[in-house]
Amino acid sequence: MDLTNQVVALKEIRLQEEEGAPFTAIREASLLKELKHSNIVTLHDIVHTRETLTFVFEFVNTDLSQYMERHPGGLDHRNVRLFLFQLLRGLSYCHKRRVLHRDVKPQNLLISEMGELKLADFGLARAKSVPSHTYSHEVVTLWYRPPDVLLGSTEYSTSLDIWGVGCIFVEMITGMPTFPGIRDTYDQLDKIFKILGTPTEDTWPGVTHLPGYKLQMLGFFKPRKLGLSFPRLYDINEGETMATSFLQLNPDNRISADEALRHRYFASLPKKLYELPDELSIFTVEGIYLHPEPNRHHGHRA
Length: 302
Prior knowledge:
The chain is an alpha+beta fold. It folds into two domains: 8-58, 2-Layer Sandwich (Phosphorylase Kinase, domain 1), CATH 3.30.200; 62-284, Orthogonal Bundle (Transferase(Phosphotransferase), domain 1). Helices cover 33% and strands 9% of the residues. The protein has helices at 23-34, 64-70, 77-96, 137-143, 147-150, 159-174, 185-196, 215-218, 226-229, 239-246, 257-261, and strands at residues 8-14, 43-48, 52-58, 62-63, 109-111, 117-119. Strands 1-3-2 form a three-stranded antiparallel beta sheet, covered by helices on one side. A three-stranded antiparallel beta sheet has the order 4-5-6. It is globular, with a radius of gyration of 20 Å. The termini are far apart. Belongs to the protein kinase superfamily. CMGC Ser/Thr protein kinase family. CDC2/CDKX subfamily. It holds the Pfam family Pkinase. This is Protein kinase domain-containing protein. Residues 1-266 form the Protein kinase domain. One of its GO terms (molecular function) is heme binding.
């Protein structure tokens, strides 16, 4: 592949600082090279020297975190639908291949000028990434982490990624992080349970056996409908039902990426989107384009 005159993104891993050989990095890289999909960032090449391992990625000019910062107060509902569809399309492709992303958050969703969304940073945690503006990496990542992982479950399945999708969906609509914990794991769980209720053996069999389940640390909250905490979900046809199907405390109850693509929330999208080959962008379909974002922050008094 000729990359002459193409802007690329480089991500470098220093080898001598690693504990042992960077097999995981190489394994992740070879895995990423196999993933060919328009909603997954393209890994062009891997350059291996004695000291470093450099990934050569396609360059995409912004990410969803920066996009939401530029358009505060929530995104245009039609764009939310297109971003969510692309995120699920990319994840569905990965999950069918038994690949988990493991770190679904706005900073890892690249957005092109045209509005194409691309999954990036597949658990490449050791790679040097652009630091996010204000919060430390750990805290931000906690915001999108599912309760099962926060409670110490190590049974990772594709449902791990789906929780983050739900958090991002609500955040795109409201313009605010869904569960913004500020301190630690328990603070994060507190934010989640205050809205979704504290899980019990009835609602989530096995939850009390998870290593992090300590009721005295968790407090007991009754479950409420998501729309009570995020009324804007009701402004969108099927918005609340879509969000609820992602944000299930019990990972077994979370919708799959494939099922979510067929949810009624997407009913207004052209059927052609479902017949697209993996490598083709949704923007090749007639009538699909990014809408101008509303200027919500003008005229608001601080």
